[in-house]
What we know:
Helices cover 64% and strands 0% of the residues. The chain contains 6 helices and no strands. The protein has helices at residues 31-63, 67-91, 98-103, 105-110, 112-123, 130-148. The longest helix has 33 residues, at 31-63. It is elongated, with a radius of gyration of 23 Å.
Amino acid sequence: xxxxxxxxxxxxxxxxxxxxxxxxxxxxxxxxxxxxxxxxxxxxxxxxxxxxxxxxxxxxxxxxxxxxxxxxxxxxxxxxxxxxxxxxxxxxxxxxxxxxxxxxxxxxxxxxxxxxxxxxxxxxxxxxxxxxxxxxxxxxxxxxxxxxxxxxxxxxxxx
Length: 159
């Protein structure tokens, strides 16, 4: 925003990122503490989720439903978590397809631990999705600058 009249500057504006707003652009206004909080929070949430899964597994053992179902549950959560990790990690570098995202909603819900871990690992180096947003913002700025700059030199004369 312009300091004089409160109007936004001309051209594209950066897209906010969850938990960071637009602080990712210049790494200001508490960007570092937010990144630390997101890193610690996502790791704590992943640890809590693993504890809940462990309690669920112990409940299945107490119910004595059999080793096949227990093994099936472990394999299902491992595969879904790995797929959710990969999908979330890819979402930080390119926009996900909305139709594919909708079709994978159940799988991503089951593999929520993988998504939390992807968020944790990405937040160690940058705000999750910062690189994608920065590339898109820079491309939009270049397009805007290109469309607003005028040619120097003589203009063509029309008869």
